[in-house]
Amino acid sequence: MTADALDDDGAAPAWRQSWRRRAEVAAIAGVGTPALRALGATVRFETVHRERLEAADRSGERRIWALWHGRILPCLWYYRHRGIVVVTSENFDGEWIARIIQRFGFGAARGSSSRGGAKALRALLKSVAQQDAAFTVDGPRGPRGVVQPGIAWLAKATGHPIVPVHAEADRHWTLGSWDRTQIPKPGARIVMAIGETIRVARDADAEGVEAARQAVERGLQAAEAASREALARPAARE
Question: What proportions of the chain, in percent to the nearest 5, are helix, strand and coil?
């Protein structure tokens, strides 16, 4: 996926018209990538319901991974170099995020639920046959902890199952942003919980899509509870 996205009307996003903003994007991506790699090399992962992940890998079926916006960082490390396509916004923040995730082996479909979302979903439809996709389901602006309907629509359109996932670190910084982004501290123990698979029928009506959206929300809540419960126990060996 190209990072040089245009708005739906064919015009370049406003921030691209400023050389300073373009330089800032390059600097953030250039500094952020090695910093994240260094931090990620120190953390220790455990997986709850690893058998669900292994079963999905064995089947070869393409999946749509669902996660909260505030847990992007640990998922970036855990799922790196799998070729997963991620929806990123076409604004300034979305650009440097896209550049960083591509250096961790992800693809980037440009757009968001608030701007360019339809285009991003069309891009995902083209790529999801060959690659998994991932959604920060309450992004890009919240409300936090509320799943937006785009992921259910994509699952209906492709027939691919949704897998909720959640990561929780025992030691972390929490940003004051709307999504309460969690940044694991060096050496943190991180538990990744894999939720139960959710399927959306190709012929699902509006009520069926809404039911799937609610199921994803419940699945993420269950995965979050499972990861917190695991953190309360002694560390497991993997």
Answer: 45, 20, 40
